[in-house]
Amino acid sequence: MALFSISIFSETTLRGDIGGLTLSEQGNPYVIEEDIIIPQGKRTTIGPGCVLLFKSFTGCKVDGALVAEGTAEKPVVFTAVNNSKYNPSSQQLPNPFDWNGILIGAQAERAEFINIVLEYSVYGIKSQSKVASIKNGIFSQNGQYHFTVEDKIQYVQDKIPFTYAGSAAAATPIEPTKPSKSLGKAQASRSAKPGMVAKDRKVVRIALLSSGIALTGLGVGLTANYIHEKQILDDMGSNPAKYADQLREDPDLWNTQTAKKRNAGVFAVLTDVAAGLCFIGFSLTYVF
């Protein structure tokens, strides 16, 4: 049984079984308070201009049939409740991983997405069968990936219209739609040279994160070495008698120890800077 209500802010709240419903933009925005489900044998239609705002840890599970059909002027929007563009009362900025995404079950009967926007989720659309079809889907800021079919990640670029023909494209997914004339030159260049764009952004993120963690560990070790060398130098300065014999044998000992301390400090700083750049690059992969 579908549970929904109209609040004093003219928003429609949804949870549980929404099979059999037809959503229109007159009910905007639709706030998803708990997971919504379309059971087998039921169909849900989402019309042009509908905006679905998902709260944390919520998503949509499709075991029956879902048709989300927007238009170029009025797409169907699946986004986080923190998105102030659609929720002016939000006190937080939207981020990847804000909500789960849309899961299409292995026995789902139909899942059709036409002129949609899907953003700030964990996994975008995850289809466990080949029934999912997408036409002019815009994906952005999804944490893990935008679209998978039977655990295979499909090549989808941020904010570039994407089309996938469902069962008819089971062997090979359709290439992302070419940018229209209205797209900027930078976007056209990105689409024209997919080999120069990170095909698997997840790999880049993992590489940057791993490098940042490894360099942080190395920096800790180098910092500890710097502190050790500095302590020896400070001890030589405050207690010269202790090192009198060593200084007689090696008159250049003081300069050698000073160089060791300086080099240890320089390498520690450079390593920390490199680690910081890796973490900055990791963060930027969620923006660009």
At a glance:
Helix content is 29%, strand content 27%. With 288 residues, the chain is an alpha/beta fold.
Structure description:
The chain has 288 residues and is α/β, with parallel strands linked by helices. It has 2 domains: 2-183, no CATH class; 203-284, no CATH class. It is built from 4 helices and 16 strands. It has helices at 185-192, 201-238, 244-249, 253-284, and strands at residues 2-6, 12-17, 22-23, 30-38, 43-46, 51-54, 59-62, 65-69, 76-80, 101-104, 110-119, 125-127, 132-140, 147-149, 152-153, 162-164. It has a 16-stranded mixed beta sheet that branches. Helix 2 packs antiparallel against helix 4 (253-284). The chain starts with a strand and ends with a helix. The model is unreliable at 3-9 and 168-199 (pLDDT under 50).
